[in-house]
Amino acid sequence: MNTINRTLLIVLPKKPYLDWVKSFNIEIDAGEYSAYLIPEKYDEYNYKDYLEKYWQDIFDSELYGILKDPDFYPEKRDYNTFNKWFETHVCDTIFDLSNEPIEIEEF
After folding, report:
1. 101 found inside a domain
2. Domain ranges, residue 75
3. Chain centroid, CA 14 distance in Å
4. In a domain, 30, yes or no
5. How many domains does the chain have?
6. Is residue 6 pLDDT above 90, yes or no?
7. Is residue 57 part of a domain?
8. In a domain, 87, yes or no
9. Is the confidence at residue 107, as pLDDT, over 90?
10. What is the spatial distance between Cα 71 and Cα 74, in angstroms, rounded to a whole number?
11. pTM, full prediction
């Protein structure tokens, strides 16, 4: 077992995001969430510093996961809206239980 030199940022949808998704007659499980690996220097005490810089990328990724056409994204997409739409948590110890190499793909 190995550890990975990253912090895990967990992004959980809140009601406004789920309502936006439902407005397109798309059903998702409210328990679904995304996880992002961020630099390990951001932990539970300072990960919001990272979010303040990269919230837009994460917000766009979450929207893109539902609809590929940005014309349907909400007009107001600021940091305050991001925090209303998503709850965030971090885990600063990531265990890799596989011996397989990690593959990286561009998204």
Report:
1. no
2. 2-91
3. 12
4. yes
5. 1
6. yes
7. yes
8. yes
9. no
10. 8
11. 0.89
